[in-house]
Structure formats: C-alpha cells, structure tokens
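Example record

One chain of 467 residues, shown exactly as stored in the release files.
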Amino acid sequence: MSSDDAAERFLDELYPYRHESETYRRIPDQGRAADEVIAEVRSFARREDEIGDDGRVSGTLYSGDHEHYHALSTVFEQFAHVNVLQRDMYPSATKFESEIIAMVADMLHGRSGEVDACGVVTSGGSESLITALYTYREQAAANRGVTRPNVVMPRTAHVALDKGAHWLGIEVRHAPLTDAYVADVDAMADLMDDNTIALVGSAANYAHGLIDPIGNLGALAMERGVGLHVDGCLGGFILPWIEANGVEVPLWDYRVPGVTSISADTHKFGYALKGTSVLTYRTKELRAHQWFAYPDWPGGLYVSPGFAGSRSGGLIASTWASLVMTGRQGYLAAARDIHDAAQRMVRGIGEIPGLEVIGEPTFLVAFTSDELDIYLVNDELKRRGWRMNALQLPAALHFCVTRPNTPDAVVDAFLGDLRAAAAYAAEHAGETSESGALYGFSGSLEGHATITGLMGGYLDALHDPAP
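Predicted structure tokens for this chain:
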C-alpha cells in the first residue's frame, strides 16, 4: 500500500462521512431545522451501532439494551440543563449523588463493620484515578510533610494514573509482574521509600482482566503506613455480582484491611450513560484531602469537591436511574451471562493451536501467542467484522465480554472466526501486520506509527474537520 493510499485510508477512518454529509468550518448563517438535524444524527447512530448491536465489539458497549438507553435518556432530559453546583435550585442532585455513592459503597462492602465508606461521583475512570492521586498527595503533604511524592504500582495499572501523576508532579514507580501477570508485591515493596504516598492495585486490570493480590498489597500498605487505591473502574461493577453468583473471586474490596480507596465506573458494567464513575474512600478523613477551598476570590467563597466545576445534573440523575432500574437481580443475571460467555471463550481459545489465554480471567479474556503474530490474527478478525482490543508488552488481544457478547451464537461465531484468523496468521507468517496496539482503537492504523505522528494527526483532525 502506497503512502498516499494509507493516508486516504486513515482519513476515511477518521471522517467516514466526509463524502456524504456537509462539513462545517464556521457556524452556519441560518440554523437548520431541528427535525432535519435529528434525522441526520440518527442516521449516524444507526450505522455506528450496527457492529456493537451484533455483539462483535470488545468492551465499549456494556449494556446494549436500547430500551434501557432510552429510559436513561428520558431521565437525563429532565435535568439536561442542570448544573449541580446550584444545589439550592436542584436539591434532587444531592439525593441522586448521595444515593449513588451509598449504593456503590454498599456493593463494595464499605458499609459494614467498622467501615463507613464515602465518596464522590466523577466524570469517568480517569478523573476518579487522578483525583485519588491528588488526595493521597495532599494527605502525605499534610500528615508527613512529603514534598517529592511517588506512587508505586504494577506496570499494568491504568495509564490514566501515569497521566495524572505527570500533571500532579508525582513520580511513578512501575513494578514488574509475576509469571501469573499480576502485581509482584515484593518488587513493589522494594520500590517504596519515605516519599511513597500510596500503592495501587487493579481489580481487574485493563490489559488482561486479572485481579492483583490485593490482600498482600493491603498488608504491605498497612505495614508501611500508606494508602492503597484499588482501581475497580473496569471490574468494580461486575466482580461483586460474579462473586454473588457463587464464583470464587479473590477479595479485593473494603473487606481487605489496608484498602483505603476504590474507584468503580458506573458507565461500564453499571450500565449508566457515558460520563460517570464513583470514587470511594474508606474514611471521611481521607476524602477531606480531596476538597479545594479558596476564600479570597471576588466571586465569593469557592469550594469544590474535585477537578470539575460545572457538572451535569442529567448524568447524575440518569446514573441513579440506571442503578435503581437494573437492581440487584438485573446485575446478578448480567454477571452470570457475562461470566458464562467468558468461560466458554477461555475453553475455546485453549483449543486453538498457537493461542494461549493469559492468567485466569473472569470476564475479560486476553490471549497471546509464542508462535503467531497476534496482530496478523487481529487483522483477519477485523476483516471478519470483529473489533478487538490490541495489547503490547506482550503482544496480545483481549475480548472484554459485555452483555451484547453473551448469546451462544456470538461466542460460537467468534471462536470460529478466531480459529480461521489463527490459521491466516500461520499462513502469512513474516508479513507485516496492519494493526498494532493503540489504546481506544481496534488497532487498524497502518503498522506502528510513531506516537508523535499519531497524536499530531489526531489533533490536526480536530482542527480540520474534513480535509
């Protein structure tokens, strides 16, 4: 493929509507009719939902129930104009947010015994993780005088933590993994010093869907007098229900001594609309370090619970609605179907020559190969209509199983196409793959472009709507 052809393909992936829909580079002089705009947007949505509705996408679409989406959107509409900063005008926001936090804390065993967990609703997993880092930084500065903070975490911890640490001036110390692809606790202990503000473990990690040894990390955190944040952004809303269905799951929540905060994304397996997560703390004393207050601004006393100023009342209301509409029985049923489908995939992948499942997954199945170019496997899966998540270090793919992926026909089709894709990779060994590991994409860009080139191209795309 020539460089010109590759560039055109890249543009077509970024701008699939550039040849069929008007491109706006300035606000139009005359506004368009609402029904016309809605019709155009609906046409985009129908096209883009097709592959997800067919169950051929890893992760991304966690519910897949359009009636559920419609109900949540109806709730959202009632508060779409609301900024929850104005609590005196919209006291329902306090009801919704406090009950979301209470329900999540209860789910995480944070309302039992001596634990009285509290928290805050954020805009997503990244904000929850970065806010946790900020809280531990401020706690360490106030209580121990730490001025050069570091955080210790396994290399599989979510990259949003690296981003947040960069912004907050926190050194990140990455520990290696064990042969089982989970955090090496001894290695993490060796990386700690007097400036360590917290440890991080995952339940489960994004790459491989595995739970770090949270019990051992909790013991280490208590021994060294630091906090332990458990990143449950991905697994926080499904692992509790998998366990409640009778599946053995290692303890990772507030039942583990030493766990001081947990993040769990309501917009993933909580089946809420995109844009919410919950960050919980074991104690109110720890959460107090999250607040920002500034008394001397001419605009008045400013108090903020986190990074966001304005927050959407619609999102908070619809998230509350998702939890109470789904209910415990709904979460149990979904978790049972997801776990069953994932285990069928584990067994099926284990029977395909050249492929190996990583670890012992519960709902997210990662697989690699010592014999095949796994990205060639991904190339063929993509041609067959599947959107996988490509990984690196080691090269691998994963399938995060969600509700649309659970029908037997979907699992059977995937395993059949995966077997064919493995055969394709064997037949084309030594050829250059088209896909690679790029977070948030299916890995469809030509080869391994440089990070700088990719970012430059992406930002150029935002500035130039349709070249």
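Notes: Confidence is low (pLDDT under 50) at residues 437-452.
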